[in-house]
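Practice problem: predict the structure.
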Amino acid sequence: MSDKGMPPLLRTSAMALALGMFAAPALATNGYIANGYGGPSKGMAGAGVAVSAGLLGLAQNPAFGTRVGNTAGFCLTTFAPDRGFSVDSAAGPLVSGTQKSKNDVFFIPCGGVNFSLSERSSLGIIAFGNGGMNTEYNTNVFQNFDPVNSTSPLGVNLEQLFIAVNYAYDVNEQLTVGVAPILAIQRFSATGLQAFDNAFFTSDVGSVTNNGDDWSSGLGLNLGMVWEPNEQWRFGFSYRSRIYMEKFNKYSGLFAEQGDFDIPAVATLGAAYTLPSNPDVTLTAEYQRIFYSDINSISNSNVTLPNTGSALLGTDSGPGFGWKDMDVIRVAGIWKANEKWTFRGGVSYATQFIDNGEALLNVLAPATPRWHASLGASYKVNENWGITAAYTHAFESSVTGTNMIAAGQPVKLRMDQNEFSVGMTYKW
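Answer:
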C-alpha cells in the first residue's frame, strides 16, 4: 500500500520522528529483521507471540495490548556486530585479503504508550527499529573492475523505523485479537559501487552508488491473536503484511524494479505452557517465517553476474542478493522468582539466508548468524516503575561461495553479534 495520499502534515511529522529515531542504524539478526523487540522479548531470544513481552512485545503480537494495560516505556539497545569477508585467492579480479567492516557499536531506541479503553479493549502506539544493515570497508573489493572511478569506503546503510497504532480486544475470556496499522519509514545509501555503475551492468547509469541518503515510506498491517483454552496453555499467532514502499529513486539502477525495496511479510505461530506444579514457570516455543523471496530486490539471484543479458541491475528481473525465505525456531522460558524479580532465557535458530553461490554481493550484507542465545531479567521497583535488561549473543557463522564475476575466487562472509538491551516502564 502506498502512502502517497498521506496528509502532508502527517508525513512531515513522521519524517521528523524518523530523523530522531535514526540516531544509528537499526541492525538486526535474522537476515536484516530484528530478532525480537524490547527487553522482555530480547531476553527470550526474540520470543513473544504466545507470552506477553511487555509494551514493545506488541510489535510481535498486537493482541497482547489488553494484558499490557496502562503502560508507557522507553528502551535502548546497544548493538555490537563484528562482520566482514575474505577473498583468499589473488588469481582473479577481486581484491584479495580479509576485510572487517567499521562501525562496531550502534544505539537503537524504542518506546511507546498503551491505554486501557475498557475492561475488554486497549489502544497504544509504539515506535521501534524493524531492522537494517550497515557495512563500511576501507578497501574496495571491486577496485580492479574500475580502477579509475572506484572509491572507498565500500558499503551500504539501510535503516527501517516502524510506527504502529495498536488496538486489542478481548472477544471472550479465552480469545483476544489485535490489529496494528504500521507506518514504515526507511532510508538507504550505498558507496563504492562504481564498478557496477555503467551500461554493462545497470539499466540506469548514475543511480547505483554515492548518491547520499534516499528515503521511502509505506503502510502495512500487523494482525494478532491469543487463545487461552485453560490455565496451562496459551497459543498465539501474528501476521505482518508485506509493506509496499515507495521506490529508492536515487538507487533505481541498483535495486530490481527500478529501486523497489518493499518490506517482506512475517508470520509467527507459538505456544506457551505454564507448569501445573510451579505456576511461576512458563515455557514457550514458536515458529516464524520471513518471506524474503517475495521481494525481487532481495531475492533475485546474482549468480550469473556479469552474464546478465537483459537482466541488468535495476530491471524487474535484475540481480539482487539471492536471499531465501527464512525459518526461525525459538524456545524460551520465564521464571517469576518473586514479586520483584522475573528471569528469562532462550535460544533461537534460523535457516541460512542464501545459497553459497550468492556470497559475492552479500559482502554488502553479510547476514550470516543463525544461532542466538539470550538471558534477561525484569525488576519491579514499585507499583508503578519497572526495569528490564537483556543480553543476546549471535554465534559466528559463515558462508563461502563464488559466482561468475569472481572468476573462481571464493568469497567467505562471516558475522557474530552482541546485543544489550535496557528498558524502563511506568504503569498506572
